[in-house]
Amino acid sequence: MKEHPRSVDEIADDYRSRREALLRALTEDVDKFYNLCDPDRENLCLYGESDGMWKVDLPEEEVPPELPEPVLGINFARDGMQRKDWIALIAVHSDAWLMAVAYYYGAKLDKDGRLKLFKQINAVPTVYETVTGKAKATGKAANGNKKRKVSGGDGPVNEPKAQASAKPLGIGRLLTEDDIGQDLKGRQAELFWPDDNLWYLIEIQSVNAKVKQARIMYTDGSTEELDLDEIIRDGHMSLITQ
Predict the structure, then answer these.
(1) Where is this region: Disordered (predicted)?
(2) Mean of the pLDDT values across residues 161-173?
(3) Which of 27, 56, 130, 137 could lock onto 141 through a cystine, CB 3.0 to 4.6 A?
(4) Which residue from 188, 26, 47 is spatially nearest to 123, judged by alpha carbons?
(5) Which residues 6+ apart lie within 8 Å of 31 measured at CB?
C-alpha cells in the first residue's frame, strides 16, 4: 500500500498530480467525462488520483473513508444545466476536494508548514479558474494584442491572457544550468516578460535537455517553446520552490 505524503513538498506534489488529473477530465477528456456522468446511474463522484489519472465512480463504501470524499451525485445535475455551467460547478467542488485532501494529509504540519503548503497550492490557478478562463492577467497584459519575441524560436508569439504579477511571488529561485533535465517536467515557475515588466505563472510541460529547450504552458492554456540558455542568461525564470 502506498504511503501517504507527509512533508509539505510531498503533499504539494500530490495536490498538483490530482489537480492535473481533474483538469484533464474537465478539458481534454471532457466529452468522455460528460458521457460517463449519466444521470440514470447512481450517485457518482469525480476523483483525481495521485498518479495523474481521473475516474468517475461510486463513492467509497468504507465509513469513514480513507480520504475526504469528493462531492456526491455530480451526474444528477448534468442535463438540468448548460454544459459549461455544469462543468464550472464541478470545477468549484473539485477545488474544495483538493484542498480537503491536501490539509487532511497536512493535519500534523505546524503553523509554518501549513503556510508553506498554502503558498505552494496558491501559486497555481484553481481548477475553476483554469476551466472557466478566469486565470487572466491584469493591466496591459490582459489586452492580448502585443507580441513577445523569443530568440531561437519561430518568431513572435501572441501574448497570453495569463496570470501575471509585477513582482515574483517570492517563493522561488532563478533557474540555473544544473536544473535542466527531466525533473523540470511538471514544475511550476514564473516567466519574466521584459516588455511588460511582468512575471507570468507557467507550468513546464516538457524539456529537451540536449538542445536546452522547454515547452511551457501559461494559465490560459496557451503554450510556448523557450530557449533555456537565453532564459538562464537573462535571469527570466523563477522556479517555484517545491
Answers:
(1) 138-163
(2) 65
(3) 137
(4) 188
(5) none
